[in-house]
Amino acid sequence: MSTIARLTRMNLRHSWQVAVAIGSTLVAASLQLLIPELLGQAIDQTQTAVSGGASGAAAQEALRTSAFVLLAVSVLRGLFTLAQNYFAEAVGHHVAYELRVACYEKIQRLSFSFHDQAHSGDLITIGMLDVDGVRTYLSTALVRAVLLVMLIGIGAYMLISTNVVLGLLALSFVPFVGWLSSITQLKLRATWLDLQERLSVLSRVMEENFGGIRVVRAFAAQAYEMLKFDRASKSALGLMHERVEIYVRNISAMNFSFFLAMGLVLWIGGNKVIAGEISVGKLATFLTFMTILQMPVRQIGLMVDGFARASTCGSRLFGLLDLDIAIKDTADAKPLEIREGTLRFDNVSFAYPDAENRPFLKNISFEARKSETIAIVGPPGSGKSTMAHLVPRFYDVAGGVITLDGQDIREVTLATLRRAVAVVQQDAFLFTTTIENNIAYGDPWAKEQWIERASESAQLHDYILGLPAGYKTVVRERGVSLSGGQRQRLAIARTMMMRPSVIIFDDSTAAIDAATEQRIRRAMRLFAKDRVTIIIGHRLSSLMHADHILFIENGEIVERGTHEDLLAKGGRYKALYDLQVRPPDDMLPEQEGAS
Fold first, then answer.
1. According to Swiss-Prot or TrEMBL, what is its membrane topology (predicted)?
2. Are residues 377 and 307 part of one domain?
3. Nearest-5° angle of CA 529, CA 530, CA 533?
4. Do residues 307 and 141 make contact, with C-beta atoms less than 8 angstroms apart?
């Protein structure tokens, strides 16, 4: 009920449109109730004129008058129904727009810890199908409830006050059809939720297949993928057949009950007409009212479903919108002020939310000053990338503190922090737009020469000039039209455009050949003079030039120093260096030559 109340308040924000919709519904329902009465009166007037010996012209005049009144009432009813539908739908679309934007904005602000566990297909389902589920709440639930109360309540009073027996017979199908319609819609609703889950599975299968189409082709796995897709598709199809069976079976039962009630009214009412108890027009009034009432009564189920669907979809929507944002500005957060640009990790510890408080980083401490380069190396899973994600506050530390020029990064605004700290990740994501727009993503109004200068530093400028459209070349989805090294170089250029105070390369040159990487390093020496540079990698040739090297293992710094110092210590760094640079002792010359 809290969800329904919240949705009602959202709709009522558009007060005048809702007022017009409900007012039009009241008028349309009143006019619709007049139609059976006017039709009955027209029949009685015509019959009286004929039986009373009136001339043909008088009878025709009576018919014309009755027909004109009926036509006028029907046209007015149609116009007010049009206004009801238009304004109810308009409010629904406004509410859907507001919720869609709110969901998208919320997803933009939710922390990495949320996105680590949420599936993009499920979020799209909430943002599309669930929003559409609450869009129709006003038109299918609230307005329809007003219409049904008017038609059934006032209509029942009019019929029963005219003739109790015929009134009860005319209304006899209403409870059964209303109950069966509600049960049908609730069953369809339950199966629709199940169908939604199965369609979500189907969309995930498609999404993964499209994203990994090159892997599928490389391993000739088309038959397996088709089998997986066919299995998910058949699961959805089977449930669709079940829904059709429920619908057809119950619609047939509702039709039977309606025509049974109409037959009883016609039989008993006809006998009353013969007996002179009621007129033919009164009998026509009862039959016409039943015909008019048939569809609205069937819509009781749609009304119940409208409330149920709005409640279910609204619960998921508001569940997302009400999520607490783990990483956000504090109430007294201030803009970050960069003076010296000194980055410091002071006894930092970290544990992922689902790691049951097992620390992933333990007591990390180091300092990096402006123009210094810090290299971080270690085995996979040692916590290198996690350290990179802590600096821009993608996650918050569990213990200790990270400061920039003595300012705790948790006490400054996220916007200023993330303008000052840039992370170039190994998996470079590119948008489906031009190369120019991808490079200038962090600074959309950047001058053309700045974009070219950044691409030159990333050793990408010459390649771009060789393309038919140059910087206007559109990068296809996820950058598949570029090689891995080109995507990484474009990501480097995009980061350089931001001119951050701290730049972190998270294994971001792994797909770049050694010669190009050296040229990038040389080009970035001038760029690195005014900022802290952190390089995370596995290839020691990328790290040897660093001012300080940290060797991370099991979330702890086990060795630190310059390249020469660490080689002299003969520890883990030396072992890794020997493994990468020197051939194993057991490799024979002929094996080495053969390899």
1. Multi-pass membrane protein
2. no
3. 75
4. yes
Higher pLDDT residue, 515 or 265? Answer: 265
Angle at 24 between CA 21 and CA 29, to 5 degrees: 125
Which one, of 494, 473, 105, 56, lies nearest residue 323 by Cα? 105
Q: What CA–CA distance (Å, rounded) separates 411 from 403?
A: 10
532 token code pair: 């802290």
Pairing of strands 373-377, 399-404: unpaired
Q: What is the pLDDT of residue 284?
A: 85
Angstrom distance (rounded) from CA 245 to CA 160: 37
Average pLDDT over residues 181-204: 77
Is a pLDDT exceeding 90 seen at residue 401?
yes
Query: Mean pLDDT throughout 72-81?
Result: 90
The residue that leads in pLDDT, 539 or 26, is 26
Residue 176 confidence (pLDDT): 84
**How far is CA 153 from each of CA 36, 45, 134, 148, 305, rounded to the nearest angstrom?**
15, 28, 27, 8, 21
305 with 355, same domain: the answer is: no
Instruction: Find the domain containing 477 and state its range.
Output: 343-581
Instruction: Return the pLDDT at 591.
Output: 43
Distance CA 498, CA 485 (A): 21
Q: What is the pLDDT of residue 582?
A: 64
Instruction: Copy the structure tokens of residue 119.
Output: 């599936």
**Same-domain check for residues 397 and 297:** no
Residue 423 and residue 376: Cα distance in Å, rounded? 14
Residues in Cβ contact with 478 at an 8 Å cutoff, skipping those fewer than 6 apart: 211, 429, 430, 432
Residue 86 has a pLDDT of: 92
**CA neighbours closer than 13 Å in the CB half-sphere of residue 298:** 15
Cα separations in angstroms, 499 against 315, 329, 385, 423, 591: 43, 23, 21, 12, 48
The pLDDT assigned to 346 comes to 92
Confidence of residue 587 (pLDDT cuts 50, 70, 90): very low
CB contact at 8 A, 134 and 96: yes
- Inter-residue contact 290 to 262 (CB < 8 Å): yes
Helix (H) or strand (E) holding 557: strand 556-561
CATH number at residue 251: 1.20.1560.10
Based on the domain organization, do 173 and 65 belong to the same domain?
Answer: yes
Torsion, Cα of 485, 487, 491, 493 (10° steps):
70
Identify which of 515, 469, 512 has the alpha carbon closest to the alpha carbon of residue 491: 512
Could you tell me which residues are beta bridge partners of residue 178? none
The closest alpha carbon to 283, from 267, 260, 259, 261, belongs to 267
Between 2-12 and 280-321, two packed helices, what is the crossing angle to 10 degrees?
Answer: 100
CA distances (Å), origin 216, targets 88, 201, 225, 344, 584: 48, 19, 8, 45, 36
Q: Where are the beta strands (DSSP E) in 337-484?
A: 343-350, 361-368, 373-377, 399-404, 407-408, 421-425
Residues 110 and 158 in one domain: yes
Structure confidence by residue, pLDDT tens digits, 122-180: 777 777 778 887 888 888 888 888 888 888 888 888 888 888 888 888 888 888 887 88
The total of structural domains in the chain comes to: 2
